[in-house]
Amino acid sequence: NATLLLALGMPAMVGGAGLAVDTAQWYMWKRELQFAVDQAALAGAWARSSRDATVQATYSTRATQEYATNISMVKDFDTPPTVALANHGTGVANSVLVTVTASEELPFSSFLTGRSTTVFASAKATFTSGTTHTACMLAVDPTADSAFRFGGSVSGSSACGAGTLSNDENAAMKEVGNTDVSLGKLIATGGIDDGFADNGTIYANQGGLSDPFASLATPSTSGSTSKTYTCLPPSAAYTTADITTHTVRAYKYYNKVGNVYTLNLIYSGTYKQANYDNSPGSTLQDQTVTSTTNSRVGPTESDYVKHGVGQNTIYEKTTTTVDTSYSDIRYNPAHDGIARPTPGIYTSITIACPTIFSSGIYFIRGGIDFGQNKVVTGSGVLFVLQGNTPSIALNANSTVALSGILPATLTSAPYNFDSAYAAKLARMLFFDKDSSNPFTLNGSSTLHLEGNFYMPGRDANFLGDSYATGNCMMVVARKIDIQGNFDISNFCTPTGTTPLDIGGGTPIVKLVA
């Protein structure tokens, strides 16, 4: 009986053991596949949470790479993962779905079923990009107390926002004085003075803020040549030329009988050798002239000059001819006293007369001073300050009207920048990545500035009675101080650009299935 019962039970015992071994294998496959697709879904979701469209587009590649990194035991019989955007909740394409299968024959189960076993795994991860903030004033010092200072008797209003990357927990943005001038939004990595409550909506202690131009390379000087800024006084039109005079003297000799002079054709005396004198000529260069017509004066004859005595007496008469010729003739038009510099490389520029800048890039190594009581204009220009010492002086009663460079200029000769780089530099007016000298608008200058100021190493001070009118400017500086009677109305978005994208809240990614 025992033998019979054992014989009858052996198939069930052996089958149970075989099924247990295969089940353990399936469970191990499932765990490895699930972990790999979980990590792949998270990697794809993080890529989609980026604010950079280029990074977003790599979500499938990143998910596939992460899956491959975490697969080991089943890598020889799994299928390539399927990665796709999916809907979650009420959202549309707000998650990344990864699915995969693995199929393989195991000894016991395939003996009973006659086929391989397939294990399936999937994972879904949702993503949100977090809050994105924009501004037109940004202080980039990461730790400064009062990186953004604002107050006094400022006037006007600006709706495009002010921000700072400073993480100072007390007052990365500080109000000095009482003013309710509108700034739109106030955004900081650190704390914001409570006094700003009347100036706009406060967003303190924000994560993920950044300098939007930090990765932007300084424009290259390739294709630019050295230039010098000069001022010429007003003048009427005039012509200059090189004047050459050439004198030819011929000598003839006569005999005299009574009062009659007879030409002596055979005289070969030594008073003037060969009876001929051809001067080498003389030239006066760059002479102002009223006529450039070549001319000949002469011949003119001298009186008779007596030589010798007695029978050896001979009489000399000189014939002189003067030729005048003109070369290197240049017409100089009337000058109105206005300097018209062209793009290039300058040691420095100090405005000394009314000035009109031509469109293009001005590379300046020693600084630019817009002068006292001068009128300065320029459309589509970019001033690139080089080195750590150049200064920018914009103050004291000058009238300055400048607009930043256009992408079409940057993509054309002699610059030939690619369109993506040109788009980032659009309307840039001052680009100074290295200098630490302060930048100050002071006095009573009248400014019409349309463009972006990028000077992350400088402290930007907007003080006194200066004001910018009728145009828009955006400023990125180490620290920003706006006080006095400064009018802030023209801190706004320049034509052809977008507000400064300074980032925002930390993206959120999580597994949901």
Q: Can you give a write-up of this model?
A:
It is a single chain. The chain is an alpha/beta fold and 513 residues long. 15% of the residues lie in helices and 39% in strands. The protein contains six helices and 32 strands. Helix 1 packs antiparallel against helix 3.
Topology:
Layout: H1 2-48, H2 53-56, H3 59-69, E1 82-86, E2 95-104, H4 107-113, E3 117-128, E4 133-135, E5 137-139, E6 148-151, E7 162-164, E8 173-176, E9 184-188, E10 200-203, E11 238-257, E12 260-263, E13 276-278, E14 282-289, E15 295-301, E16 305-307, E17 314-332, E18 344-346, E19 349-350, E20 355-357, E21 360-364, E22 368-369, E23 375-385, E24 392-395, E25 399-404, H5 407-410, H6 419-424, E26 428-431, E27 439-442, E28 446-462, E29 467-468, E30 473-482, E31 500-503, E32 508-511
Parallel strand pairs: 5-7, 5-30, 6-8, 6-30, 7-9, 9-10, 18-21, 19-22, 20-23, 21-23, 22-24, 23-25, 23-26, 24-27, 25-28, 26-28, 27-28, 28-29, 28-30
Antiparallel strand pairs: 1-2, 2-3, 3-32, 4-31, 11-12, 11-13, 11-14, 11-17, 15-17, 16-17
Low-pLDDT segments, ≥5 res: none
N- to C-terminal separation?
54 Å
Quaternary class: single chain
Large-scale geometry: elongated
The Rg value, from CA coordinates, equals 44 Å
Strand content: 35-45%
Helix residue percentage: 10-25%
Summing up helix and strand content along with how strands pair, one would put the structural category as alpha/beta
Total DSSP helices: 6
Note the main sheet. 19 strands, parallel
Tell me how many strands there are. Answer: 32
The whole-number mean of residue pLDDT values reads: 88
